Amino acid sequence: MWPTEDPTEQLRWRIPCSAPDANDRTVTVLVVGDRVALVLPPGDTTVLTPDEADALAHLLDTAADHATAR
Known about the structure:
The chain is α+β, with helices and mostly antiparallel strands. The protein has one domain (2-69). The protein has one helix and five strands. It has one helix at residues 50-69, and strands at residues 2-3, 12-18, 24-32, 35-40, 44-48. A five-stranded antiparallel beta sheet has the order 1-2-3-4-5. A hairpin with an 8-residue loop joins strand 1 and strand 2. The two termini are 23 Å apart.
């Protein structure tokens, strides 16, 4: 996960991923004021509070640990 190269967009990250149809996609994470927005392919957006974003990050870490253990 890397921030965009534009220094004015230091609160936006693009994460490469794959869709079920095997096409390459990108998930975008944005800090918007006091919220965190996730823009998922094909453009659906979810807005999280800081606590919700922290909980999601913890769940993703846990899932990644289980996935790499297999």
